[in-house]
């Protein structure tokens, strides 16, 4: 079975929409989504939700050959792919301002198994290309993508999930898909993880589950994430249907903290 996937990245942190940008973007999406998005307190969350909606609309329009204006969505709590389960997480490599790396690791001790901590903290020559903090965020992205795919919930004990990574370092802008997962001590053969390192500081893990992963594993090495720009996501011919009130509401919000 041929699998078609789109992997897009948009840098919301560096996107500061003009009034025209915002009104055009809001006019591209459904009214109920506009209202939902503007319930967010911070600008950053408005931008994230808005771009997410535009990505979905452009993806469906392009892949299914449906006119942009004819796309209509209903909301569920699941991600979208052609296989049984999928979960996606991105983890930014960052140093705490208040704590040293060792102190930070201490506060997160219960998250990882002893075997995972051994690799995270390893001084082996095979691991020197990436720091312990890099390896920490790689494992974090893996665990978060897995629990999202399984819809386990935020209270789940993450140490019950243990990853074995034959590829020690994830190369920048390449796909690693040989990572294995043990859940409650049992190897789960029906899971595959597509790992990427974007710009050297953002680990992305896509967790995929299906009865037969053979064809997906063969194709996954080409599923690179691509950066897209705002003008690629909108309908340039859209008729603006929202008022300036949205621009006023947006400017009255604080930016919010980016992580």
Care to describe what's here?
This protein folds into two domains: about 10-75 and about 230-250, Ribosomal Protein L22, Chain A (Alpha-Beta Complex), CATH 3.90.470.20; about 85-210, Alpha-Beta Complex (Ribosomal Protein L22, Chain A). Helix 5 crosses helix 6 (about 130-150). It has nine helices and eight strands. It is α+β, with helices and mostly antiparallel strands and about 260 residues long. The longest helix is centred in the first third of the chain and has 21 residues, at about 45-65. The chain has a three-stranded antiparallel sheet with strand order 2-7-6, with helices on one face. Strands 3-4-5 form a three-stranded antiparallel sheet, covered by helices on one side. A two-stranded parallel ribbon has the order 1-8.
Give Rg in angstroms. Answer: 20 Å
**CA-to-CA gap between the ends?**
38 Å
State mean pLDDT (0 to 100 scale): 87
In the CATH hierarchy, what is the superfamily of the largest domain?
A: 4'-phosphopantetheinyl transferase domain
Major sheet description: 3 strands, antiparallel
Strand portion = 5-15%
CATH names the topology of the largest domain as Ribosomal Protein L22, Chain A
Helical stretch count? 9
Uncertain runs are none
Note the run of SSEs as H and E: EHHHEHHHEEEEEHEHH
Amount of helix: 25-40%
What would CATH call the architecture of the largest domain? Alpha-Beta Complex
Q: Order of strands across the widest beta sheet?
A: 2-7-6
In the residues, how many domains can be counted?
2
How many E strands? Answer: 8
Shape, principal axes of CA atoms: globular
**Highest CATH level, the class of the largest domain:** Alpha Beta
Structural class: alpha+beta
């Amino acid at each position: 079975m041929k699998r078609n996937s789109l992997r897009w990245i948009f840098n919301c942190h560096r996107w500061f929409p003009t009034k025209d940008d915002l009104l055009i973007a809001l006019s591209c999406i459904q009214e109920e989504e506009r209202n939902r998005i503007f319930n967010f307190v911070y600008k950053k969350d408005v931008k994230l939700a808005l771009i997410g909606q535009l990505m979905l609309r452009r993806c469906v329009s392009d892949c299914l050959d449906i006119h942009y204006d004819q796309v209509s969505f209903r909301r569920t709590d699941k991600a979208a792919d052609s296989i049984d389960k999928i979960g996606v997480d991105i983890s930014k490599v960052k140093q705490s301002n208040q704590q040293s790396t060792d102190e930070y690791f201490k506060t997160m001790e219960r998250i990882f198994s002893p075997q995972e901590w051994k690799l995270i903290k390893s001084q082996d020559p095979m691991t020197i290309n990436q720091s312990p903090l890099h390896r920490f965020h790689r494992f974090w992205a893996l665990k978060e993508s897995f629990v999202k795919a399984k819809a386990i919930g935020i209270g789940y004990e993450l140490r019950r999930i243990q990853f074995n990574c034959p590829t020690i370092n994830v190369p920048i802008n390449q796909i690693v898909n040989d990572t294995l997962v043990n859940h409650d001590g049992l190897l789960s053969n029906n899971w595959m993880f597509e790992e990427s390192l974007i710009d050297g500081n953002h680990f992305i893990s896509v967790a995929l589950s299906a009865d037969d992963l053979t064809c997906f594993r063969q194709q996954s090495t080409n599923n690179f994430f691509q950066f897209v720009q705002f003008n690629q996501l909108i309908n340039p011919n859209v008729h603006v249907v929202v008022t300036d009130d949205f621009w006023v509401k947006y400017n009255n919000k604080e930016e919010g903290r980016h992580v």
